Amino acid sequence: MELAHIPLRQLKISPMNMRQGGKAPDISDILPSIRARGVQQPLLVRENGKGYEIIAGRRRYFSLKAIVGDGGEIDAVPCAIMAKDDDAAAIEASLIENTARLDPDEMTRYETFAQLVRKGKSVAEIAATFGATEIMVKRALALGNLIPAIRKAYRDEDIDAHTIRHLTLASKKQQSEWFRLFKDPEQRAPRGSYLKSWLFGGEIRTGAALFPLDAYKGRIVTDLFGEDGYFDDAEAFWTLQNAAIAAKRDALIKAGWDDVMVLDPGQHFGSWEHVKTTKKDGGRVYVEVRQNGEVKLHEGFITQKEHRTRLARLSAKKDGTEKAAVRPELSGPAQNYVSLHRHAAVRAALLGNQALALRLMTAHAVAGSALWQTRAEPQKAAKEATAESLANSNAQTAFDQEKADILKRLGLHEHSHTVTRSNGDDDRTGQLFAKLVKLSDDDVMRVLTFVMAETLQSATCIVEQLGSILKVDMRKTWQPDDAFFDLLRDKPTINAMLRHIGGKAVADANISATGKVQKKIIRDFIAGDGRKKAEGWLPRYMDFPFKAYTKAGAGALSDNARRVKQVAV
């Protein structure tokens, strides 16, 4: 015979049980005791397929099912497992005899077991003597961790079994604080499963750790009933866990995955929103970080939208093959924000190089462009915040000041929105020509330079070329603002930017933090608020030549930078 604890779902009534075919038994006399204290006498069972059938203990079994049906919690059920040749009647008689020696009061039982331990008896020996499982003995001995006031309240049945179980894990100080709440009529002491969250700030089991347990220097509390361990210092746990997640991410990238996305803590990975895709075809790895510390990897997925885009492209190709679409690291509005600021800085710099402007305008006249109808760049902002940010930039202010002077020199209305207005009006062109004839070469070149700057198309490789040639320093015209940070959404990119400004250690330590938290840390570095101030720091997006933070790139911005390299200006 073997004594063990078996989950309720693995138990069923044996056909050999003489009451098996009858209606559910009356359990009103034993249900209150089992609800409060659990099963004290093991059920007699034997193996049957993947589970166990109950030879004796039908009423105890139905009592446990009733508790679960009412939404209650139960532990695994103590059972005596018969061997193939066991005599069921003899085993049951032995269990009844031994259990009869076991005092039904758990506090008295603790005192009995504790006295035996002091005399040198082991847990296994005590269990064999009383026909109990070792976990049942440990459960009774665990009551020794309780302060006397809580023991008495439990003996008086003022505290339920599940609450007591969790209180055995608490320090004496925590027990005293809990009992104070328990006795205060105006307070509400946490009970049951809520008590574990109150004690540990959330249930973080040792099994959730990706790091070696000896690296954790805090206290690990052991559940003497279920043999589970819990971290009592959540902050220390997450410091180590985040470092392990960062290492896991680095290993996955080294293994050939182009994109590894660490989700926000508690954010669920919806498999129905994604399509399974191979590494070769651009599948990425999603790292799901749960509130209880557990980490789950979902390898080889792309979004449904990316999948539809890929199918559309494949259907348009006669040979049936096309490289998998890669999601840019910057959204459309974010690309627009960066493009407009870079454009403003470049054309402001162009104002100081008239010879270059003349040559560029000649190129436009010969080769044409999307704007070569002498139409001003509309500077259309995708977000109102982007428009406001652009209007407040030094580059835009310098450009508008020059525009006002050019309008005055050409005799145009001082409140005109642009100098360039190609409306096909020949008389207007003649009038402007007459004005230009009277102007000096320097003034004409100044007008020509401004017109070239005004018709310089945003978000093009020309802007990239000019920015590099003119050695544009965005620090003079742009400062990180709310509009910029609000448009950053891609978590891997935000973490890479955090590494750029604060170093790998800071980025890895916050890898599972929300994007909002990581952006706050970046801004703290910029302002020197609790962090070493990053003097003169610019995100890579504002450097010339342009650089992205991840392999995914930044859409049109990365494409333009690549084209500049190809033409090798």
Structure description:
With 569 residues, this protein is α/β, with parallel strands linked by helices. Among the domains are: 2-143, Conserved hypothetical protein from pyrococcus furiosus pfu- 392566-001, ParB domain; 247-316, no CATH class; 332-476, no CATH class. It has 24 helices and 11 strands. The mean pLDDT is 82.
Q: What topology does this entry show?
A:
Layout: E1 2-6, E2 11-13, H1 31-37, E3 43-48, E4 51-56, H2 58-69, E5 77-81, H3 88-100, H4 106-118, H5 123-130, H6 134-142, H7 148-155, H8 161-167, H9 172-183, H10 192-200, E6 220-222, E7 229-231, H11 234-254, E8 260-262, E9 274-276, E10 284-289, E11 295-303, H12 304-316, H13 332-350, H14 354-367, H15 384-391, H16 394-409, H17 426-437, H18 441-454, H19 461-469, H20 482-486, H21 491-502, H22 504-509, H23 515-527, H24 556-567
